[in-house]
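Inputs:
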Amino acid sequence: MDKLIRVTAGEGQIRGFFVQNAEMLEQARTIHQLSPVAAAALGRSMAASAMMAQMLKGKGQKITLRINGGGPLGTILCVANIEGHVKGLVDHPQVETENLTPEKLNVGAAVGKEGEITIIKDLSMKAPYIGKYPLTNGEIAEDLTAYFLHSEQQPSSVGLSVKIDVDYTIITSGGFMIQVLPEISEEQLRLLEARLMGLPPLSQLYENLKTPEAVMEVVLEGLEPKIVEEKEVVFNCDCSRERMEEALISLGHKELKVMIEEDGEAEITCHFCNKAYQFNESQLRKLIEEL
Ligand SMILES: [Zn+2]
């Protein structure tokens, strides 16, 4: 089971999230036939979106994370909500890049760094909140750290990591997001910085310790971390037949008629989960009537 925890530490002046999302990434890998480097990029992005969604205030709100760095992977798109539902895709799932070291996938080369990170917060109001910031290095964690600092004026530390087996299955995927509040004492801030600087690779922590709680104990050691909330996070797509009908209707009268004449039916596949929706001739005709 994939799990996310919300924590506080440092006398309430440090807050953060830890997430373990290997199962949702394995599901995404199977759906999209992801190459290792594509899986690493999407796993990091899904972990980040799962955590960012927990900063939302209410049900029905959602966050979209879009990363486009001009690299061969194309765009990474993730959508998550406060209930722990996450979906994600990449434009080119079969991309391969040369590893940085035999062990280390080159996510930055796949993503590219000539582009931007966009965060869309749908707060169930008229206009969504949209924040953007240029990419730093395409490794995603550093890009998000810069985004939070410059676009939301929130000093943060973001760690994201995915480890993949030789048969491409996901060994581990996880991350953390830690933010400090202005009232933090200098002593606590120094202690936090020293902890973050001295950490072993995050993939190693998640591989050895398995749970977000155990990783939290290591990352925030000496800062008296407390778990405020914990929840399951899952790969969950919210596509539906109604939405696909809306998509068909939006094509317009003429296009629908062409579909009926040429194929006598239509099939629409959801890009996030690959679920296919079929519409026969009479169903298509009904949609035209609704226009
Ligand atoms: Zn779907």
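The domain at 3-235 is CATH 3.55.30.10 (Hsp33 domain). Flag for discussion at group meeting.
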